[in-house]
# Entry
Amino acid sequence: MTSSALALGNVLAAESGGGDGFQAPGLGEFYPEVVASFSLFGIAFEITRITIILWVATLALIAFLVATVRKPSIVPGKLQFVGESGYSLVRDGIARDVVGPKGLPFAPFLASLFFFILANNLMAIIPFAQISPMSKFAFPLVLAAICWVMYIWIGIREQGAGKYFKDILFLPGVPKPMYVLVTPIEILQNFVVRPFTLAVRLFANMFAGHMLLVVFSLGAVYLFQVGNYSMIFGPISALMAIVMTFFELLVIFLQAYVFTVLMGTYLNGSIEAEH
Amino acid sequence: MSILAAESANPLLPPLGEIIIGLIAFAIVLFVMFKFVAPRFEQVFRARREAIEGGIERAEAMQAEAQASLEQYRAQLAEARTEAAQIRDQARAEGQQILEELRAQAQQESARIVARGEEQLAASRQQVLNELRGHIGSLAVDLAGRVVGESLEDDARRRGTVDRFLDQLDGMAAGSPDGRTGSSVYAPEGNR
# Structure
């Protein structure tokens, strides 16, 4: 994964260096210029466009959530209905149905996860922002790390440390010689692959989605400007940009939901000593 | 640290600053969700569920009440029916009784009338007999006196003759107890 991303970056970088042709967007898209930077306890903080978008998304989300519950009523208004639908989707659809009967206390956490990812993802197609903070690996990584700590902690809390780790190391119901094969896979699966895929899935989807939109948008602009027969391909590129925007909308919701559902299944595995 | 070499930066190795910023942003969302949003939503859900359950409960209570009223009405109807049947039976029995009583009374009355009639009949017969006895005696004596031309002075003998005659008459009649008694009473007297 890392090497392929690097290779992609190198290819794009090499192309963009090619003089007066099409300046293909590269990794630079995800490293906009720093607006301000400061250092705190030796840690460098850089405020960039993406950081600002993250804060805008976060504040907008909080404003939206607070507005939906400001005047709660049994018969919901439009705004409350929208907020409630989202919350119910996570509460009933994931916390109760996926996590299980003990899942309702996790509903606020799962809902936060869902709404936070959704709000940030939506920035990918909102004009003037048009990039999701989730296409910066740091943010999905934070969420995945929180989930990782949480489902292990819940597993220890619900089953006890001994039983939780024993069940992972020695999967019940597996013939003894198979442990040679199963145990390393299970360790890898539970402690490395799960959080990594959780983070990378979201990051890669948003990263690729943004790249697609940028390529088609800039391509359309370039084709219109280039001034020769290429012009006829301009509308196609523009159309593709619009189509991909709608596709991106689907991906935005899907990835927010998938991340939350997967966290739900991990929590379910931690709470219920099945396997 | 990666801005200078943006092109060669590894997108999978994020700077620590970004991670911390992401952490803070998510923590704020978590805080708002746990503190304000989720409790309110749960409160709304609970209120809604209670409202629905309350409505159902009210409807159930109403239905139960209607059912109770129906049962009561039916019970009352059945009661009235049994009562009516009872009254009818009682009336019939009473009628029967009255009829019986009347019949008994009538029978008694008729028996009484018959008895009185018989009594009267017997009395008048006795009276007639007595009268006749007196008359016949005097008539016969009168007649015999005239026929014989002699006056029967001896009272006892006269009575004996008359009695004998009457006894003969009684014997001919053969049904009157008085006559027989008379004869049986008389017989020893006659022998004496």
